[in-house]
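Fold this complex.
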Amino acid sequence: MGGFLLVTIQVDMHDRLALTLQDDLTSMVVRHRARGVLIDISALEMVDSFIGRMLGTIASMATLLDAITVVVGMQPSVAITLVELGLPLKGIRTALDVEKGMAALQTALAENEDGGDEAHQQ
Amino acid sequence: MSGPKSKLAEILAKREGDITSAWLELQAKDLKALSASEQMDTARKSRQFMDALKSASREGNLEDIAAVHWNPVRELLSDLSAGRAKAGYSPVETASFVFSLKQALFNILREEIANDPAALADAVWQTTLFIDKLGLFTMEAFQKTREDVISRQQQELLELSTPVVRLWENVLALPLIGTLDSSRTQIVMQNLLDAIVATRSDYAIIDITGVPVVDTLVAQHLLKTVAAARLMGADCMISGIRPQIAQTIIHLGVDLTGVITKATLADAFALAIRRSGFAVTKGGKEAKETNEEKRSAAGAI
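Structure:
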């Protein structure tokens, strides 16, 4: 979708599924040369520390492959659980829904390109 | 056992008027501070109570006040103590309603069974047990009403103290008032996150002007709320930090870097508006007037 990947998590994540997702996503980013990844977790009602950590690792992997990750649609209860677990997901961009996430991705990419151009000019 | 029991019931039926008037007199002595209307009310309730008592004692056992035919008496008593609890009577004043009946009854009993000491002692014992039971029941009802009042107030306090206000398109404010503890933080967090989802807001301002003390725990709670709001995709700012509190936070070594903090709610609001792409300008009639004033002032010079 315009250089972006959209991942929607529909079922309750279990550990093996999470690892598969991690695998698929990294290879897809490389194959489609995606610049941004949107992870929609609005259907996710329960998280544990593993899933929380996995979201973090996916984001850092995508950053390594030069794609920006935005986690969208987090449920209030999930947000509270993550904070109580001590996993505030520092360094991950978040947005309320897919629409806002897309806007956030676009602005972030624009900023990145501006920054890149300036660096180039110097 | 049936002798003294029926004796008491018999005396109740026979000398009801005397007992009631003696009782009312005793109550009036106990409750001197009452206004006229309150005294009237008490007298009315006492008469109702005596009526109920008489009919109940005629029907059956004085020992078991939980039985069905005591229902009217129990209802009257719980009504009375609930009313008194709400009106702010002391427990002593409430209990004296029933306990002053004891003295009135004893006096009448002494007159009626003067020539048989054994029967008198029996009847007195019976009456004591009976009145004590009623008294305990009254106190229980009184206490229960008080507890209901307290728990309702607690609930109201919780609801009152955590409003989420929509200041502008995409900007929410959460004015916190009072001390923050874990349970309140939980509610505050839940309310804020729900409001963020409902209004699709991008900015949330937590105003702590009304928080009297900020210690490490409160700061921790604030940081958690900010982190949770960020996970929902909203930018969170903290405003209303008083000089005293700024000093405390730094002395405690609480790390608030990474959180936008502003001295006043107005500053935070201005920032939120600017970030969401709006600009505040002075316009309309007032601005025009000021300009004209300036011009006329310049002309005069």
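Residues 165-285 of chain B form a domain with the Transcription Regulator spoIIAA fold (CATH 3.30.750.24).
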